[in-house]
Amino acid sequence: MTFDAQAGVNYRLWLRSKAQNDFWGNDSVFIQFSDSIDSGGTAVFRIGTTSAAEMNLEDCSGCGIQGWGWQDNGWGVGVLGPLIRFQTSGTHTLRIQVREDGLSIDQIVLSPQTYLSTAPGSLKNDNTVLAKSSGGGTTSPAPTVSAISPTSGPTAGGTSITVTGTGFQSGATVSLGGAAATNVAFVNSGTITATTSTHGAATVNVVVSNTDGQSGTLVNGYTYKAPPAITGMTPNTGSTSGGTSITISGSGFSLGATVSLGGTLATNVVVVNSGSITATTAPRSAGVGSRRCSCDQF
Fold first, then answer.
1. Alpha carbon of 214 to those of 136, 196, 248: distances in Å?
2. Residues of CATH 2.60.120 domain(s) within the chain?
3. What distance in Å separates the CA atoms of residue 141 and residue 219, rounded to the nearest whole number?
4. Does the global pTM surpass 0.90?
5. Candidate CATH numbers 2.60.40, 2.60.120, 3.40.50, 2.40.50; the one for domain 2-111
6. Domain 229-294 is of which CATH architecture?
7. What angle do CA 213, 218, 223 make, to 5 degrees?
8. Nearest C-alpha neighbor of 41 from the set 141, 185, 138
9. Is residue 216 within 8 Å of 245, Cβ to Cβ?
10. Are 180 and 197 in contact (CB under 8 A)?
11. Closest C-alpha to 236, from 227, 249, 254
12. Which of 55, 170, 192, 277 is the 20 to 30 A CA-CA neighbour of 296?
């Protein structure tokens, strides 16, 4: 049979069934899916493999069976089975394989919310029959974005980022200030990695958009910083033995910046503000050299 479900969402599997003559030897089936995965993204319970979820109507050995009952893919009193997840959003296929003869199945439920922790009805002598649904509705909560690391980077892009939050789905996209990130990788429902693309200098919102159309935003979460620019230096000459105190003016200077003159690193570098740096020249042979300011920390 086919049904609709979303990627990256936890589903609880429930079956309403009845064993012939209330006999434990008639109470179980195997269940497989077209693209089911575990919480780590590894394929499990796949059609065409020897892996399958198992449903035993009797809750434990000796617990007994009475009429219709709701049971999941766990074994033991009060024990819930592993949750079911899917690799992609859309239409999926479910396959029931008889494990023991004599089991009648009335309903199959995959619940992402309402019956995630509790059964739709009783385990014994049940009278609960749910309304039919093909699934696919937006029942999972919208994602939230709580943090991004690092929080800033160059306007040229290319910065590797890690976005954390809740409710992320496989296939989600990430944008920063409206610029789509590249190399987006879904790690789990709380972590996504990506690479920033180019954007003008600005502090921007970070948005994660799930495949179900829902999105979460971290307001002013990331800052694109323009590269430093040098407009002047005083004095513009000094002794080859070094030791000259200099002041460099410009824009985009940040804490951790380094200064070099003709390829020779200056010492005692102090970032006064984003437009001013002071430093001391190092020894160097006579000649005219270019001034360079490198801001390594964004």
1. 14, 21, 48
2. 2-111
3. 19
4. no
5. 2.60.120
6. Sandwich (2.60)
7. 125
8. 185
9. no
10. yes
11. 249
12. 192
Parts of the chain belonging to CATH 2.60.40.10: 144-225, 229-294
Confidence class for position 294, pLDDT limits 50, 70, 90: low
DSSP state string for 218-239: EEEEEEEEPPPEEEEEESS---
State pLDDT tens for residues 99-145.
888 899 999 999 988 898 899 999 999 999 887 775 654 456 788 99
Q: Is the separation of the CB atoms in 249 and 275 below 8 Å?
A: yes
The count of residues in the chain is 298
Q: Domain 144-225 classified CATH 3.30.70.100?
A: no
Whether 270 contacts 277, CB under 8 Å: yes
What is the residue whose two structure tokens read 């019956």?
115
